[in-house]
TrEMBL record, chain A:
CDD domains: PBP1_ABC_ligand_binding-like. It comes from the Bacteria. This is ABC transporter substrate-binding protein. Residues 1-20 form the signal peptide. Gene3D superfamilies: 3.40.50.2300.
From TrEMBL, chain B:
It is a multi-pass membrane protein. This is Branched-chain amino acid ABC transporter permease. It comes from the Bacteria. The keyword Transmembrane helix applies. The chain crosses the membrane at residues 20-39, 51-71, 77-99, 111-132, 162-186, 215-236, 248-276, 313-331. InterPro entries: ABC_transp_permease, BCAA_transport_permease. PANTHER family: BRANCHED-CHAIN AMINO ACID TRANSPORT SYSTEM PERMEASE PROTEIN LIVH, HIGH-AFFINITY BRANCHED-CHAIN AMINO ACID TRANSPORT SYSTEM PERMEASE PROTEIN LIVH. Belongs to the binding-protein-dependent transport system permease family. LivHM subfamily. Its main location: membrane. One of its GO terms (biological process) is L-alanine transport. GO terms for cellular component: plasma membrane. CDD domains: TM_PBP1_LivH_like. GO terms for molecular function: L-isoleucine transmembrane transporter activity; L-leucine transmembrane transporter activity; L-phenylalanine transmembrane transporter activity; L-valine transmembrane transporter activity.
Length: 393, 336
């Protein structure tokens, strides 16, 4: 008995000394249909981790070591395995991720909840995640698609468009966005003539476009991925003359779109999460100095997700998820001193002395409801083959 | 006027795409059917043979483009086709020498050869991905449209547009030429006749002095040509991506089996049946019916038999129906 006790004491000691650095999981879709989007988000999260480490005042002088994992995007079991490895082998207590909505739901249910780990997704936008059972462990710095849908319906209303056809990529993200858009648009008095899924990775979308064209509509809403079927649908619709104006949600707005279609899709418009806040500009400058593109989609949210986890740890004075999970909303919202990117050291000091902060960050973070960003959206349109920002809402 | 609009809408969204797709499937099914008839096994590697042939053609196209050679309004890939066919023929002959010949000499059953061809498929799959990568490649150049939807509307004053892409026209013309040439070869030339004799009765053919190795070589060269042409036409019309070529295997096999394995005419008919069913069953007939029916009867719903996400299931459905009702296919092929 005595030897058992001393052995466990020894184990506790070893475990204690291994905690010299705090590990932060960065679980994103480095492979799969959004692989081109993941690196800037990861770079954003790692930038926040590095900034916190350098201050020397984090939890009494600890450093933060980010650990990367591949959540793919469409393979829930691979995402779960990667998350499980982070928790059991690396001992992370907070995860920035996962990236796509389906993978996020899987990691939350199979890894985060059983192990009591906090997850903040920078990019999962499915409305389904708002109502999911999360034990207070799940947050997101990206706004729900329910919000994006309302914004999209507003934009269409202002352009006097009341009849649209919708096609969505056949997964959690696409279906969630299409359904919530249909609800929002119909509430605003519009008509959705057809809401048809398309599968990614096909060579031929003429059957899909045929059905969409037959249903009719003034514009076509493409809730898909630019690297995948979304572009195929647009190509086929342009070729057959079925539609020439497209509404482009966040998965479609990327430079790959204009590289492919140039001015053929002039007049198309869309929206993506984005803000013109002071924090955004500060982050873009930091990102440029660190050598990546700070304007990339969800890069700001990646930085904010990592910063929120680490600031909440500081506020709780512990890196245990059970201790700091309740601090996240407190740190993110008013009242308190506003904290922008690059100011993390100031935030840590205020928290260490028992003060209150209101983390604004790169993307104007304001957590509402079940712990998700209220969200600001950048409205864009395609003019002369370029993506141009027309406003924020 | 309404009838014309209905006809144009139907042509634009069903007839034109299904005809081009059907011609591509027919060429693929012809290659499958030839291996079944002459070599007596089902070649699962056919989809990846198409991908390989297309890849070589694309590389040759890029080569020609960098030399500044183009075919004017036609896609450069058409000039590059012979290179693609030659390299693919070489690959298939080498595969036959290294893999299939061993099993043929041992008189292995067609089931064993089928499984061997799965192995060959994985190897080809890997070669293509290693050389050109997994990404989508577009290699169509030249004029994009024969008739564009906008021009058609201005020309005719109709509400509906009709677009015919040059790749669709090229597909049809090339496929017809290839089919005529193939039938001429099989029915009129000495080599073609010996192939058919070998297919009908191997022992009798051997007794009458036909060189089996020569017949096998000719068959592989024909298969290479058909696969490369089918793959290149599909790639020109849509886009090239190794994974989609692998997926093409299902409709191609469905086409070959529906027509009757081993029957060239059956393969062609089967290709068009599969293509028209895929597009027709998933088409929403609302617009066409709206034009043709009197105002009061026009449907509110979409009149769509199957959601487009079930497009691939159509091939399966037809396959099952044919195997249940007429296992030899429409044109009395073998029922293996």
């Amino acid at each position: 008995m005595k030897s058992l006790l001393s052995a466990s004491a020894l184990l506790a000691l070893v475990a204690g000394s291994a905690q010299a650095e705090v590990k932060l999981g960065v679980l994103l879709g480095f492979t799969g249909p959004l692989e081109s989007v993941a690196p800037p988000i990861a770079a954003g999260a790692e930038l926040a981790a590095a900034e916190i480490s350098e201050t020397g005042s984090f939890l009494g002088g600890e450093t933060v070591a980010p650990v990367r994992g591949d959540s793919t995007c469409i393979d829930a079991s691979a995402a779960t395995a990667a998350g499980e490895r982070m928790v059991t082998a690396e001992g992370v207590t907070g995860i920035v991720g996962a990236m796509c909505s389906g993978a996020t739901g899987a990691v939350l249910a199979n890894v985060a909840i059983p192990n009591g780990i906090v997850m903040i997704s920078p990019s999962a936008t499915s409305p389904g995640l708002s109502t999911v059972e999360d034990n207070g462990l799940f947050f997101r710095t990206a706004p729900s698609d329910a919000r994006q849908s309302v914004v999209m319906a507003e934009i269409l209303g202002e352009k006097d468009i009341d009849e649209v056809a919708v096609t969505y990529t056949n997964n959690d993200y696409g279906k969630g966005l299409a359904d919530s858009f249909q609800a929002a648009f119909e509430e605003a008095g519009g008509t959705v003539t057809i809401s048809a899924p398309h599968d990614d990775g096909k060579g031929d979308y003429s059957a899909e476009v045929g059905a969409l064209a037959s249903a009719g509509g003034q514009v076509l809403v493409v809730a898909g991925y630019v690297d995948q079927g979304g572009s195929g649908i647009i190509q086929s619709a342009l070729d057959t003359g079925a539609f020439d104006t497209f509404v482009l949600p966040d998965g479609m707005v990327a430079s790959a779109l204009t590289e492919k279609f140039g001015s053929d899709i002039d007049g198309s418009f869309g929206q993506l999460a984005g803000s013109d806040s002071e924090g955004g500009a500060a982050f873009e400058a930091l990102a440029e100095a660190a050598g990546f593109d700070g304007t990339a989609v969800y890069a700001k949210e990646g930085y904010d997700a990592a910063a929120l986890i680490l600031l909440a740890m500081q506020a709780a004075g512990s890196s245990e998820a059970s201790a700091y999970k309740d601090k996240i909303t407190e740190v993110a919202n008013a009242p308190g001193e506003k904290i922008f990117p690059g100011d993390l050291a100031k935030g840590l000091e205020i928290l260490a002395s028992g003060g209150d902060i209101d983390y604004v960050g790169a993307s104007d973070v304001e957590l509402i409801g079940p712990g998700e960003a209220a969200g600001r959206f950048r409205e864009v349109s395609i003019e002369n083959g370029e993506i141009t920002t027309t406003g924020y809402r | 006027m309404d009838l014309l609009n209905a006809l144009v809408a139907l042509t634009n969204f069903v007839i034109v795409p299904a005809t081009a797709y059907g011609a591509q499937l027919a060429l693929g099914a012809l290659g499958v059917t030839l291996t079944v008839a002459v070599l007596r096994f089902t070649n699962v590697a056919h989809g990846d043979t198409m991908a390989f042939g297309t890849m070589v053609t694309i590389l040759a196209t890029w080569g020609l483009q960098s030399l500044g050679i183009s075919a004017g309004p036609l896609p450069t890939a058409l000039i590059a086709l012979p290179v693609g066919i030659a390299v693919t023929a070489w690959l298939l002959l080498a595969t036959d020498r290294m893999v299939y010949r061993f099993y043929r000499r041992n008189r292995a059953s067609s089931a064993i050869l089928l499984i061997v061809s799965i192995g060959v498929m994985f190897v080809m799959n890997g070669i293509v991905r290693l050389v050109i990568g997994v990404d989508e490649q577009r290699f169509d150049d030249g004029a994009r449209f024969l008739v564009s939807a906008r021009d058609f509307k201005e020309m005719t004053g109709l509400d509906e547009g009709l677009a015919i892409r040059s790749s669709q026209a090229i597909t049809l013309v090339t496929a017809l030429t290839v089919m005529v040439a193939l039938f001429w070869f099989l029915n009129r030339t000495r080599s073609g006749k010996s192939m058919r004799a070998f297919a009908d009765n191997r022992d009798l053919a051997l007794l009458s002095g036909i060189d089996p190795d020569r017949v096998v070589r000719i068959t592989w060269v024909l298969v290479a040509a058909l696969a490369t042409i089918a793959g290149t036409l599909y790639g020109l019309d849509k886009s090239f991506k190794p994974f989609t070529y692998f997926q093409l295997l299902l409709p191609i096999f469905a086409a070959a089996i529906v027509g009757g394995l081993g029957s060239p005419v059956g393969a062609i008919v089967g290709g068009f049946i599969i293509a028209f069913s895929e597009v027709g069953l998933t088409y929403a007939w609302k617009k066409v019916l709206g034009y043709t029916l009197p105002a009061g009867l026009a449907p509110d719903g979409l009149v769509q038999l199957l959601g487009t996400e079930y497009k691939n299931a159509v091939s399966f459905l037809i396959l099952v129906l044919v195997l249940l009702i007429k296992p030899t296919g429409l044109f009395r092929g073998t029922s293996t």
